[in-house]
Amino acid sequence: MMQSTETSWFVRDCVAGQPRQVWSFDGEAAIRTGVTNPETGAGTFFRAKPGETFWDCIGRQTDWLGPEAKEGSFYLMRLGPAQFYPRMARPIAIADEARLWVPSYDSEKLFIANARGQLTLLARKLENICQTVQPTQGTLSAYGHEIRNLLILAATEAEMHWRGILIANGLQMQRPTSNQYIRLLEPMKLSHYAVTFHGYPDLGPIKPFADWSQVDPTGSLGWYSAYHGVKHNREVEFARGTLRHAFEAVSACIVLLVSQFGPVALNAELSSLIGLTYPDWPIEEMYIPQVTSAQFTPIKHPDL
Fold it and tell me: Taking the CB of the first residue and of the last residue of the chain, which one, N or C, has fewer CB atoms within 10 A?
């Protein structure tokens, strides 16, 4: 989806270790931003003929670039400078590293502090349980009251995150369900995150959203389905509140906090306990910072 302006924005993925470039195109000219007097520079300004696309305009006047002037080197961005999706952290397109970033971090500090505090308590409860049950592939089916209670706390925390993200993107819901929550799967690339617990290498990476499916939004998310079972029907489904599901639910809370605000939202205690694997974001879905005088502007995600 194009950004909501008449100007299109592109990022050139340069080669040989050169930094990426941001370009604008308004149908009349292709202009590289961030340089002084681009109109008079070499290779920073190209006048378009009527009806030309950005790639036609560039390609016609840059024979030395060859195929680089076509799609595959210049990426049409989905958002313009300083635009972002509320509570969805993404890498900066022109940054040297693919760290997650969202410009609303400072305005969300109270929420982040509360969520971080709750997540720290969840992680401590998990650590306490693991002092009794050593987590290995052979013990992940263990269950009990403390494990059940942790699962319920972590799953309700995940629901809080889901609900907040959806509301921030303009959805008004009386009683949201997994049918609404799963809308966040692709926009936030939740299934691509993996959590490792440094103290328990036998477990391997935990991907709490890997199997989430539109076909069955509750049942396909094993830890979330188990949460419903042990919360509403403990007498029959008590055994579903396993250590595996507790690890997955706590991991889900970690992923949801980081995918909203980046790893900077974690404290030193949490960062020392876990490692994270992040999605590989396409350039066109990254954010462009304030390369112009534009103010940061939240844009509701079009798929929500």
Answer: N
